[in-house]
Specification:
single chain, mainly alpha, elongated
Amino acid sequence: MSALPLRVRVALALAAGMLACGIPLWPVTYADLNFLQRPAFVTWLVLGVLAAVIASLLLPRRVLAPVGAVTFGFVLAVLARVVVEVTLDPTSHNLWPFEVVIAGGVGLLAAVIGVAGTRLAEQMRSGPRR
């Protein structure tokens, strides 16, 4: 993966976060949407952790880059939904800032868990430092 340019790896990490949020979110109608129940919080968390593992393998060994990419991907997925649905019905999504904050919080939590787990696994695999 290191053969890919950095901007491509960042775009892939961002896409992983966006899909982790969007796949369970986009099929649910706005009337049925409840961020803590449907899409299931656990589904979001698991997919977010998976996206964070992918991002941490794609991006440099720093922690902030993959965490930021996944979190921003979650936010972009919600913003994309808001833009599409407000275009169709301008009266919908009157609480969209809360949607963005909730998605960002779940994305941040999942990203921290996934990146920390990946970095810990990398340290354990490489053995103790001397």
